[in-house]
Design a protein that fits this description.
Elements: E1 2-5, E2 10-13, H1 14-31, H2 36-45, H3 50-74, H4 80-106, H5 110-142, E3 163-166, E4 171-174, H6 176-192, H7 197-207, H8 212-237, H9 243-266, H10 269-293, H11 297-300
Antiparallel strand pairs: 1-2, 3-4
Membrane topology: Multi-pass membrane protein
Keywords: Cell membrane, Membrane, Transmembrane, Transmembrane helix
Transmembrane segments: 12-39, 85-104, 110-131, 187-207, 214-233, 239-260, 272-289
């Protein structure tokens, strides 16, 4: 069933979009990521223009993350205090990111920037998570199946000023690192159309030392508000939010998130992380391949007036 997307100006199969939304919703519930890092490139692959994909995907992340958070709140695995600190940073970052996005859109470079950002960030994060997860699995095997906690209690983060107690996470650390993580994630939400969970989840585990079971729900809590704010800014400054596309992705995403949360509870944290790492690397490889093998200039010759 083909459906015309008015803002994207393309026709796409409605069931394909529902399916993509469902898959990304499942990932959202399992890993605590908004899923945008996979969905936005998938939208590129099916012919949605990058500016529309970025702005609309931020909208879809809000719903799938909200659905996931409800499930985590029931289990009391959301650190609302930590989430609020991350959120403050996130709102500042998304404001900055929109300014950069609009400038690059005005000079016609936004498509290249978005794809390069994906290749660089997905490559780095995927590799780091893969190596770390392998180490954790080896350690748990050596310990006869008992997982060895890999929390580094005293790194440089714990020596910074402005400390706060985060009871749910069992932490007493400075608010500066969570604020900075929030700002970075906000910038990425605006430029890449992602919730930023693929950066936030590893940062919360390895940098802040939060327990994995609390990380997923807290990450989703912050993602909801940052991506809602980003969508609003894109809609009012760029007019690139495609409502028809958003609704189809939303329906699939909300259903998928509930399924994903149930699957996530049954799997070990290390297994979840290694699966996520492999997915991140696969998408990164496809995007890099497209950039190298099929330069976008082939399609844009004569499209713009200048060089």
């Amino acid at each position: 069933m083909q459906i015309y997307l008015p803002i994207a100006e393309v026709s796409v199969n409605a069931f394909l979009l529902l399916g993509l939304g469902g898959i990304v919703g499942i990932l959202s519930g399992m890993f605590g990521v908004g899923g945008g890092f996979l969905m936005t490139p998938l939208l590129f692959f099916i012919g949605i223009p990058p500016a529309v994909a970025v702005a609309t995907e931020a909208n879809q992340i809000v719903a799938s993350s909200f659905s996931g958070v409800l499930a985590h709140l029931k289990r009391k695995t959301v650190d609302l205090k930590m989430g609020t600190v991350l959120l403050i940073g996130g709102l500042i970052g998304s404001g900055l990111g929109i300014v950069v996005f609009n400038y690059l859109k005005s000079v016609g470079q936004v498509e290249l920037l978005v794809q390069l950002c994906y290749v660089v960030f997905l490559g780095m994060i995927g590799s780091l998570m893969f190596v770390e997860s392998l180490r954790a699995i080896r350690k748990s095997n050596k310990a006869g199946g008992a997982t060895v906690p890999t929390r580094r209690r005293h790194n440089w983060v714990h020596n910074l000023p402005f400390k706060m107690k985060f009871r749910v996470s069992g932490l007493y650390i400075s608010v500066i690192p969570p604020l900075l993580v929030g700002v970075l994630v906000g910038v990425l939400a605006a430029i890449m159309g992602v919730g930023g969970g693929f950066i936030m989840v590893p940062a919360m585990i390895y940098l802040l030392g939060m327990p994995t079971k609390v990380v997923v729900g807290t990450s989703l809590f912050q993602i909801i508000f940052v991506t809602a704010f980003t969508t609003m800014l894109h809609a009012t400054t760029n007019y690139t939010v495609d409502i028809v596309l958003a609704v189809l992705l939303l329906v699939g995403g909300v259903i998928g998130a509930q399924i994903g949360t149930r699957i996530g509870v049954k799997m070990k944290a290390e297994q979840l992380r290694i699966l996520l790492a492999l997915m991140v690397l696969a998408v990164c490889g496809k995007l890099a391949f497209d950039l190298l093998v099929m330069p976008s200039e082939l399609y844009s010759l004569g499209a713009g007036g200048g060089h």
